[in-house]
Amino acid sequence: MRIAMIGTGYVGLVSGACFSEFGVDVVCVDKDSSKIEMLEAGRMPIYEPGLENLVKKNVDAGRLSFTTDLATAVASADAVFIAVGTPSRRGDGHADLSYVYGAAKEIAAAVQGYTVVVTKSTVPVGTGREVERIIAETRPDADCDVVSNPEFLREGSAIEDFMRPDRVVIGTKSERAEEVMRELYRPLYLFETPIVFTSRQTSELIKYAANTFLAAKITFINEIADLCEVVDADVQDVARGIGLDGRIGRKFLHAGPGYGGSCFPKDTLALVRTAEEVGRPLRIIETVVDVNAKRKHQMAEKIIAGCGDDVSGKTIAILGVTFKPNTDDMRDSPSIEIVAGLQAAGADVRAYDPEGMTEAKEMMDGVIWCEDAYDAMTDADAVAIVTEWNQFRALDLDRMKDLLSEPVMIDLRNIYNPDEMAQAGFHYVSIGRPATLSAPA
User: Fold this and answer.
1) Other Cβ atoms closer than 10 A to 289
2) Could you tell me the domains of the chain?
3) Mind telling me the catalytic residues?
């Protein structure tokens, strides 16, 4: 079987590489010739653990290739996946579907013989119907079925998520299309992966419902963390206590500076706009969007409070700027608002991130970028952990005290133990836990 993957962004590149690992012949297509040249040279445009080796393995095996020639790739494909970006549209928060519809038009002009056109991009309900209309209008003679097949990949563990997913969702009522999709995902039957066949509209909504539910779960525990700080409770114990309930589950109950990344911010907003448009507003998700936006500003204020309510003229070390570890993705990262808030309050910022600094430099002005965590802490008045990279989990506390002007840590990811930090002589502030108000004498 042969497929064309339109778009070599995060979803397209990971999905294409993983399908090729299944033994499928995959051609990844992108209009950006510099990106294609990079991939052909074996260099990855994104950071994802294991991706570079997976791509190389399957390129060497002849199952994976890259091109800017969409027409040739599509003409020989049994299935064509649309995996282009759907960013929030400026001004109203709706998903910008111009890349999806543009791809559909180009695909329609190039298909030969029966072809399954699959929307892999995250798209609002009804998008598949419009893609189908565009194809029929562009090529009335085209023999195509349009299928929804949303992705559920977590940045940092995307390859494992594709190879051993919780489920695969496929939206189609065509028996021919279902047969093609079953063949593509046949290797997953070995793991007894649940494959949910449903309508296109239902499939499209499943993706948004999943992401907004998880975003709501994150926002819920963040608000509980705020309450814990007032009533002297421990949010980590609360999270464990409720997470052990099988109806709730333990995942996504980690208090922090709010969600970010390429999915949750735009998908929550897009679902809110879709619901408004059809007259069925989602009040819970509206609140989630609002609370999460405000939380990023509150985290800057938390750091300032941890520094004695004044950071003017002080230097703050920031550890981690990506929205989560094991990615270089800076999209809607809480660090953007946090750093801006600190700078607005008069602080100088020294920062380090293992993978995100190249992209962050384009988004953050006036930041001193450092060689490692200890370099960032040199002569700083406080250190704040914003992203929980593994290398920040076992820092040398004695070395930190020697480097910092004051032994102050604001831990926005609750990596360290408050009692141990107090014993080590730190003024330690975390999220939703009884705070160490001052270092011991």
Assistant:
1) 21
2) 2-198 (3.40.50.720), 208-290 (1.10.1040.10), 296-429 (3.40.50.720)
3) 263
